[in-house]
Automatic annotation (TrEMBL), chain A:
Pfam families: BPD_transp_2. It is found in: Cell membrane. GO terms for cellular component: plasma membrane. This is Autoinducer 2 import system permease protein LsrD.
UniProtKB/TrEMBL annotation, chain B:
This is Rhamnose-binding protein. One of its GO terms (molecular function) is carbohydrate binding. Pfam families: Peripla_BP_4. Belongs to the bacterial solute-binding protein 2 family. GO terms for biological process: rhamnose transmembrane transport. Keywords: Signal. One of its GO terms (cellular component) is outer membrane-bounded periplasmic space. Residues 1-24 form the signal peptide. It is found in: Periplasm. Residues 29-285 form the Periplasmic binding protein domain.
Length: 334, 330
């Protein structure tokens, strides 16, 4: 028997999945969402003469960049079966801490470090309560949502911190090249990092495993509590980073900063195809969802659609994108 | 008949086209409010539309965020900059947070003014206050004195002892007391802007000064509580409650007669004036600089102080004749 013959028999095709990778890609959530994004882009270009303009599109990215930074970490957290509703309040507290440091006369590096460290500490606080005391994360973070912002209100009252150094404005108002903003660049770098971490590392596999079955994950030797704690830290850190960007963009701090942003972040994650029950989802999905939300709000803004109608559209979009594949499946089955 | 319909349709389409062409050259003024769905701002939008139809070649874009957040307003302003509107008139949710975005708007040649709730000086060309402290101080005593041609005793029911606005208005009122001979302020009490405490203080005033003719409450909480106290004490007709209040909350007091009149800024006039100012600044026939006067149509002129802000007018007086029109607005 020649070598070629052996190879031929060994090459007999035994399918290890029901659909081919190509077909799976086409049927995936991400491609559906990408179609929606392209559709919205085309609709917007026809609806308003101001849409296809590099500077306007660049301004539009501010509608989602800060939220998306948090959404990446939130996606991992939700995939692992937990949630953090305190992110917007972490932004407020980080921003307040940065204001205190700024007033004490420190420069931009110290201000930025303070923002990030405050976020990290808030994340650690949530993480300890959830993983050490075994409390449900939704309860813990609803509590810290009031707690963190409450501290900001105590420090600031109805006042404001203003007068951040001009170099500090770079984060939220600066451009890297041409129309590419600093925030958009941070967003892009984070997207790559999170995609690699979630999809190409053991840590990422552990996150999925925990979300699907935490008990099974424990018995497979995954240190479940530690992974969850790290995810809370990450989410806190991202909120701190978003706080640096937002504070820099606004050039001032008020305790009401970023109010209500937590729900927009969760919306972005869910729209990106992450199961709210945990266990599934992807970073590319979240990236596309960020663009979809940014394009929808900006496009409607150009048409001067009132904000109330805009939130109805975003809500309908969310339900529609989630319900359509389910309805399609049911139809095919019957 | 069919021909006629066709002709009419063609005419209608043609008019539509012409209207479309005309509106392309219209000046677009954006009225940005703290949040949509608030009666006060809906009324301001009405005023802006009134100014637009008076001017003729103006299109009003009435817009704002869903919640009263600075971030929401920035998104709205960004989309207005993208549309290259001619002017933005904003009632700001945050004095400072809007500055970077509004600066960008001004750099792109957009006229930016603030009204009602102002923006820091570097973020706007001028700010329109609904009224000024001297005008308010004078108005609250005038409202009481007008009902007392023979003179009489009045008392002030304020908010807290440390309320900056109320203290300034009372100071301004005391400065002009000489213009109202025979009217005497017998006491100033503080209800802390709490309904129950204000009520008790008002009742106390009527017991301590049996001949009291009027209670002046320059606070929207105090004026409602005082009116209730007068009704409960059976002194309607003897003690007149006046000051600053909201039409929606004061409608009952006007009906019962406990209050003959009160004042507050008129949002319709405010929206109207802001639009007029934005129009003239954008058109270039007025400039925003300290000491300058800018025309505001039927509201006269506004004169700017050294911070480029100006006061629109006296607070607007509400009484039995007009309360019905305003009580549903704010």
């Amino acid at each position: 028997m020649s070598l070629a013959e052996t190879q031929q028999t060994a090459a007999r095709h035994i399918p290890d999945r029901l659909t081919t990778p190509l077909a799976r890609t086409f049927k995936s959530w991400e491609s559906l969402l990408l179609l929606v994004a392209i559709g919205i882009f085309i609709l917007n270009s026809f609806a308003s003469p101001y849409f296809l303009n590099a500077w306007n599109l660049s301004d539009a990215t501010f509608n989602f960049t800060e939220k998306a930074m948090i959404a990446f970490a939130m996606a991992l957290l939700i995939i692992a079966g937990e949630i953090d509703l305190s992110v917007a309040s972490i932004i407020a507290l980080s921003s307040t801490a940065m204001g205190v440091v700024m007033q004490a006369g420190f420069g931009t590096p110290a201000i930025v470090a303070t923002g990030l460290v405050t976020g990290l500490l808030c994340g650690a606080f949530n993480g300890v309560l959830v993983t050490r005391l075994g409390l449900p994360s939704i309860v813990v973070t609803i509590g810290t949502m009031s707690l963190f912002r409450g501290i900001s209100y105590i420090v600031l009252g109805d006042g404001a911190f203003r007068g951040y150094p001009s170099e500090f404005a770079w984060f939220g108002q600066g451009y890297v090249v041409w129309v590419i903003t600093v925030e958009l660049t941070i967003f892009a770098i984070l997207a790559v990092i999170y995609a690699v971490v979630l999809h190409k590392t053991n840590f990422g596999r552990a996150v999925y495993a925990i979300g699907n079955n935490a008990t099974a994950a424990t018995f497979s030797g995954i240190r479940v509590e530690r992974v969850k704690f790290i995810l809370f830290l990450l989410t806190g850190l991202m909120a701190g980073l978003a706080s640096v960007c937002l504070t820099s963009r606004l050039g001032s701090t008020r305790p009401s900063i970023a109010s209500g942003m937590e729900l927009e972040v969760v919306t972005m994650v869910v729209l990106g195809g992450v199961s709210i029950l945990g266990g599934s989802g992807s970073i590319p999905g979240v990236v596309i969802a960020a663009f979809v939300m940014g394009l929808v709000t900006f496009g409607l803004g150009l048409l001067n659609v009132p904000g109330i109608v805009m939130s109805i559209v975003v809500g309908a979009l969310l339900i529609g994108v989630i319900a359509l594949p389910r309805i399609y499946q049911n139809l095919r089955r019957s | 008949m069919k021909k006629l319909t066709k002709l009419l349709t063609t005419a209608a389409i043609a008019t539509g086209l012409f209207a479309g062409a005309a509106s392309a050259e219209d000046m677009r003024i954006a009225l940005v409010v703290k949040a949509l769905g608030i009666g006060f701002f809906e009324a301001a939008a009405k005023g802006a539309e009134e100014a637009a139809s008076e001017l003729g070649d103006v299109e009003i874009i009435y817009t704002g965020p869903t919640d009263t957040t600075a971030e929401g307003q920035i998104e709205v302003i960004n989309s207005l900059i993208a549309q290259n509107v001619d002017a933005i008139a904003v009632s700001a949710n945050d004095t400072d947070a809007l500055v970077p975005t509004l600066k960008k708007a001004m750099q792109r040649g957009i006229t930016v003014i603030s009204w009602d709730s102002g923006v820091a000086e570097e973020g706007r060309q001028m700010h329109l206050n609904p009224s000024s402290n001297p005008l308010i101080g004078n108005m609250i005593i005038k409202l009481a004195a007008d009902e007392l041609p023979e003179g009489g005793q009045v008392a002030v029911l304020s908010a807290t002892t440390t309320s900056t606005n109320q203290n300034i208005w009372i100071d301004e009122m005391n400065k002009v007391m000489s213009n109202y001979p025979g009217v005497e302020v017998v006491a100033t009490v503080y209800g802390d802007d709490l309904a129950d405490k204000s009520y008790r203080e008002a009742t106390g005033l009527m017991q301590s000064y049996p001949d009291l003719d009027a209670i002046i409450a320059p606070t929207s909480v105090g004026i409602v509580a005082a009116a209730q106290a007068v009704v409960d004490a059976g002194k309607v007709g003897q003690v007149n409650v006046t000051g600053l209040g909201l039409p929606s909350e004061m409608a009952g007091a006007i009906e019962s007669g406990a209050s003959k009149s009160f004042a507050i800024w008129n949002p319709i006039d405010l929206g109207y004036s802001a639009t007029m100012i934005a129009y003239h600044l954008s058109k270039g026939d007025a400039v925003a600089e300290p000491g300058a006067s800018i025309p505001m149509g039927r509201m006269g002129e506004v004169t700017l102080d050294e911070t480029n802000s100006g006061a629109m007018a006296d607070p607007f007086v509400y009484d039995a004749s007009n309360i019905a029109d305003f009580k549903d607005i704010f």
